[in-house]
Amino acid sequence: MVKLLILACTALLLSINHVIADDTTTPFTKITEKPVTWKSEKTWTDKITAAPVRCPAGYYLEGTSTCKQCGRNTYSLEGSSSCTPCPDGKVSGAGAKSADACKEATCPGKKAACPEGKGCFDLWQQCDGKPNCPDGSDEAPELCEGQFCPEGTKRCPDDSRCCGAKSFCDGRPNCDDGSDEDPLFCGEYQCPAGMAKCGGGLKCIDTWRFCDGRNDCKDGSDEDPEFCSGYVCQGKRMKCDDGLQCVLMQRICEGRATCKDNSLTPEEDFCQGDEFNVDNSGSTSSGSSSSSGSSGGWSKFCKAGKYKEGKKCLTCPENTYSLAKATSCTPCPDDKVSPAGSKSENACDYAPCSAGDYMTESGCQQCGENTYSGAGASSCTSCPSGKVSSAGSTAQSDCYYAPCSAGNYMTSNGCRQCAANTYSGAGASSCTSCPSGKVSSAGSTAQSDCYYAPCSAGNYMTESGCQQMWREHLQWCWSIIVYKLS
Question: How much of the chain is helix, strand and coil, in % rounded to 5?
Answer without folding.
Answer: 20, 25, 55
